[in-house]
Amino acid sequence: MAYIEFQNIDKFYGKNHVLKGINLNIEKGDFVTLLGPSGCGKSTLLRCLAGLEQTSSGKIILDKEDITHKDPKDRNIGMVFQHYSLFPNMTVKENLAFGLKLQKLPAAEIEKRVKDSIEMVELIGKEDEYPASLSGGQQQRVALARGIVMRPKVLLLDEPLSAIDAKLRKSLQTSIREIHKELGLTSVFVTHDQDEAMVMSDVINLFHDGVIEQSGNPVDIYTKPETSFAAGFIGNYNILKPEEMKKLTGKEWQGDVAIRPETFLLSNTPITSGESYKMQGVILDRVTRGNVLRYKILVNDVEVQADLLFRSASMYQIGDSVQVALANHNCVCL
C-alpha cells in the first residue's frame, strides 16, 4: 500500500471539471512533483491533500488513514506557499515557534526544534529579525523552516520558488532537496517549470487539463514522452508529422514523432559515423540560450531545431550548408 493514495479524485468548481478521476500513488520518502501549465489541476490536487479544498468525489489515503474529510489541522501536513505568509509582527524565531506553541509542546522541545530548523535553512543570526528586514530568499527559507519544524508526515510545496530570481532559485532548489533527504520527508512539489522538476524530483507527474498525462522518473519523462503534449512540454522536442518524417528520413512513419534538439549531429564535412539518417541542411537562424546555441535548420523542406554547446570557434552562420545526422533510436513515436 502506498503512503499517499489518491483514489478516483474528481473536483468541480460549478460546471468546471478541474480534476478528472485522478488516481495517483506516492511512496514514503519520495520527492514527487506535480508539473504542468497554469490551470491544469496540479495546485488543486495539492490543496485537496492539504484539506484546503474538498474533493467532489473520491478518497485520499495518508499512511493507511482516510483523510478525505479531515480538517487541515488534523492531517499533520506542512505546507510552503509561493507567498511566504509570515506573521509580520513576529520575529523569525517566533514565526517558527507559533505552531509548536499551539500544540502545547514543552518549551525545551520548542527551542530545540526552532534552533535545528534555523540551522537547516542556514539562517543562523537572523533569529530575532522581522520578516520586513529579510530578503525574499530569506523569507522563503523561513517559510520552509516553518513547514519542517512541525515534523509533518508530508511536506507540500506550492510553487515556492516562482517569485525568486534565477540564481537564488537554483540555490534553494538544492537546499530543499538536501533537507528532504536529511529528514526523510515525503514531499509533494508543484511547479510549472520543467527544469525545476527535472532537478528536484524522484517522480514527475505531468498534468494536462485535469488528468495525469504521464508519470515517471525525470529521465524517462524526458527521453520517452508518450504523447504530443508531453513532448511539447518537456525538453523542447521537435514534433513532426508522418509526412515531415518521410521527407526527413526517406521512410514511412505511423503517427507523430518527437526528436530532441540535442540529438541531431551537425558537421561541415560528411558524417561517417553509424547514425541511421544522413541529410544536408541550411542554417535559417540561431538563438543563444546560455551555454547552448539553438539552430533552426531547413532539411529536405522540413524545419527542425538542433542544439549544440556554445563554442565560438565552431559556430555556424545563417545561410551555411551543414551535414545533419540522426539516429533512429532518437526518433520517439508518439
Descriptive labels:
334 residues; alpha+beta; Rossmann fold; OB fold (Dihydrolipoamide Acetyltransferase, E2P); six-stranded mixed sheet; five-stranded antiparallel sheet; 28% helix; elongated
Beta-strand content: 25-35%
> What composes the largest sheet?
6 strands, mixed
- Provide the CATH architecture of the largest domain: 3-Layer(aba) Sandwich
Looking across the biggest beta sheet, what order are the strands in? Answer: 6-7-8-3-9-10
- CATH superfamily descriptor of the largest domain: P-loop containing nucleotide triphosphate hydrolases
| Text of the CATH class of the largest domain | Alpha Beta
Helix content: 25-40%
The low-confidence parts are none
Helical stretch tally: 9
Would you report the number of β strands? 18
What would you say this structure looks like, in words?
- The chain has two domains: 4-233, Rossmann fold (3-Layer(aba) Sandwich); 240-333, OB fold (Dihydrolipoamide Acetyltransferase, E2P) (Beta Barrel), CATH 2.40.50.100.
- The protein is built from nine helices and 18 strands.
- It has a six-stranded mixed beta sheet with strand order 6-7-8-3-9-10, sandwiched between helices. The chain has a five-stranded antiparallel beta sheet with strand order 13-17-14-15-16. A four-stranded antiparallel beta sheet has the order 2-1-4-5, covered by helices on one side.
- It is α+β, with helices and mostly antiparallel strands and 334 residues long.
- The mean pLDDT is 93.
- It is elongated and about 75 Å long.
- Helices cover 28% and strands 32% of the residues.
